[in-house]
Design a protein that fits this description.
Elements: H1 10-17, H2 20-29, H3 35-62, H4 65-83, E1 89-90, H5 94-117, H6 126-157, H7 159-167, H8 172-197, H9 205-212, H10 217-250, E2 263-264
Antiparallel strand pairs: 1-2
Helix pairs in contact: 2-3, 4-5, 4-6, 5-6, 5-10, 6-8, 6-10, 7-8, 8-10, 9-10
């Protein structure tokens, strides 16, 4: 029997929101100093989700490509800018690199999903295009931010060895191969960990949502398998792209390490 999805009242949401007090209590008990950040994060969560809920309601009802496309572009740009906020060090152009890496990888993989795998018609159907791109963007953002953070840390800690290798005749790529490998590995690990326990330890959001909405568990599982593989591909491509873009900015064509471009985020 399909009972459908149970509607939640504002009171139900408020009761769930009170659980954030647990986080605040832990912060106070352990003197973590996270109370203000928790409060801001909780308010942002409510405001942002309510806002996107109303926006998506309008986009779904309007159902035109010129309504869907601007929203997906905005989502991508915000993801790219957010991906450049992590880490103690940064460099000029990191935001542009982050947007480019996330945009290229996420949109290519999403296009494969919409045109080749799911084959929806029309291609801009907001019920498919926006949720799929959103899930891919969120995970690609994590991979890119972790990868670039690890890249800048590795370059800083290995500076002497890198400069020595360059002085001995190594090319800029030969000198940076190991830091680049470590950065790509760091960016891919969260997705690999998620894939290792999916369906056993955790039930992913898309699958849970479909089951709650009354979809067949078998079909929900198939969709989730597709999404996991899409996320894995986009995260890997985005991380590699971001690391390579950082490498090109921090090493000149004359095979010199432009270490002065790496600055402390607080100093900047």
């Amino acid at each position: 029997m399909n009972a459908g999805l149970q509607d939640l009242s504002l009171l139900d949401v408020a009761i769930a929101a009170l659980l954030v007090i647990v986080n605040g209590a832990i912060s106070v008990a352990l003197s973590l100093g996270l109370e203000r950040k928790l409060a801001i994060a909780a308010v942002r969560t409510v405001v942002q989700l309510l806002l996107i809920g109303y926006v998506l309601g309008w986009v779904f009802a309007f159902d035109r490509w010129y309504a869907v496309l601007p929203l997906t572009i905005l989502m991508t740009v915000i993801a790219g800018l957010s991906g450049a906020q992590r880490g103690a060090r940064t460099y000029t152009g990191q935001r542009v690199d982050s947007v480019m890496a996330i945009w290229a990888s996420s949109w290519v993989v999403s296009a494969i999903a919409l045109f080749v795998v799911i084959r929806i018609h029309p291609w801009y159907s907001p019920h498919y295009a926006i949720p799929i791109l959103g899930m891919i963007l969120g995970n690609t953002l994590t991979g890119v931010s972790l990868g670039v953070e690890r890249m800048t840390e590795e370059l800083t800690s290995r500076r002497d060895r890198i400069e020595m290798a360059l002085a001995l005749g190594a090319t800029r790529w030969e000198a940076v191969q190991e830091p680049a490998r470590q950065a790509v590995r760091a960016g891919m690990i969260p997705t690999l960990n998620q894939m290792a326990v999916v369906g056993i330890v955790s039930l992913p959001g898309m699958m849970t949502g479909q089951v709650l909405a009354g979809q067949s568990p078998v079909q929900a599982v198939r969709y989730q398998i597709v999404i996991m593989f899409l996320i894995a591909a986009s995260s890997a491509l985005g991380t590699v792209g971001a690391v390579l873009l950082a490498w090109r900015r921090l090493f000149s064509a004359e095979h010199r390490f432009l270490v002065a471009r790496l600055v402390e985020r607080s100093a900047r």
